[in-house]
Specification:
With about 400 residues, the chain is α/β, with parallel strands linked by helices. It is built from 15 helices and 15 strands. The strands form 3 sheets. Strands 4-10-9-8-7-5-6 form a 7-stranded mixed beta sheet, sandwiched between helices. The protein has a 4-stranded mixed beta sheet with strand order 1-2-3-13. A 4-stranded antiparallel beta sheet has the order 11-12-15-14. α3 runs antiparallel to α12, α4 runs parallel beside α12 and α13 packs parallel to α15. The longest helix is centred in the last third of the chain and has 25 residues. It starts with 8 loop residues before the first helix and ends with a helix. It binds pyridoxal-5'-phosphate. The site of pyridoxal-5'-phosphate (PLP) has 15 residues, from α5.
Length: about 400
Amino acid sequence: MTNKLSVTRATFDDVMVPNYNPAQMIPVKGEGSRVWDQAGTEYVDFAGGIAVNCLGHCHPAMVQALTEQGNKLWHLSNVFTNEPALRLAQKLTDATFADRVYFANSGAEANEAALKLARRWALDKFGPEKDQIIAFNKGFHGRTFFTVTVGGQAAYSDGFGPKPGAIEHVDYNNLAALEALMSDKTCAIMMEPLQGEGGVISPDAEFVKGVRELCDKYNALLIFDEVQTGFGRTGSLYAYQQLGVTPDILASAKSLGGGFPIGAMLTTAEIAAHLKPGTHGSTYGGNPLACAVAEAVFDVVNTDDVLAGVKQREQLFKTTLQQINEKYGVFQDIRGQGLLLGAELTEKFDGKARDFLNAAAAEGVMVLVAGPSVIRFTPSLIIPEQDILEGLARFERAVAKLAG
Ligand SMILES: *Cc1c(COP(=O)(O)O)cnc(C)c1O
């Protein structure tokens, strides 16, 4: 047995790099959509580990997959392939536009692979001039230096020295601005099919179609970052399936592992051929434990039952939030798709989303923010109706305190 030291939130400040500022309480146990902290206080979880715990905490199918695989084989590296990775890749390609999969360990790594592949594809096919990558203001694609530079928030990418080049940004939903930037030098467009971190902002239908047309016109690849929107979050396996637009490359992570770290880049056979042996890699990518868990998540999530359930839960969330708003008038907009929902605060509460998050936690419900003025909800895709109502009742008490 290991010697279990007693630790508290104060320990964090003593031993951790201060790049995070976590809550004062420390969660120790979760079951479904409920979580308990060290003191035994119970919370309803509407945060879902930032859109990760798509089947809640400790789902039996995931626990079973993890323990079964844990007793068989943990790790090999990519010197060998393994059965869980092959099965998961087979299921992902059968269920999507893609023919080929590259496994990574996070969303940033899946996007990093997507960007490197796009650059290599363009170099091979058109030469070194075709290197321009265009992305969108307020977009978020991860924290590696390439992905954070492609992300549309300079505050996250500044201060680390020279950035990767040939990356430009325009406003989301502004097709004319995008068109003005594009040329035969454009290698790829990277976008979220619904901006999550940037404030839960949906694309206009004509905008997404227009982006696809511009990519086709200039021989540029369309990369969808579905790290947050993917794996059932918006009510289809991937968000692109409801948009009528198919990307060339898709990045998946977060819900893909349901809480076990894994990322995946999906693409066509023709594009994938440009990542020849040795061009890219990862020691852990395609790890058997991660893939076994993700396969179990896939089997539960990719069913009509669960996906239709996401839409029903979306309606319950939206109508109940509207009822809260009728009483307190704190939101100017309640939006989002499936169980990636945002409530934007009125001008009076501008910049105060974090106060709502803290007040909600004090009432026993975990929520997220998306920027300074949007409260974000990304619960389990199978959260029971009763937990939604109980969590929103607690949330209403928090709202009453701040608005009263
Ligand atoms: C969370 C997120 C990422 C980064 O994923 P990590 O696993 O933290 O690297 C990238 N893109 C989007 C859209 C995300 O929401």
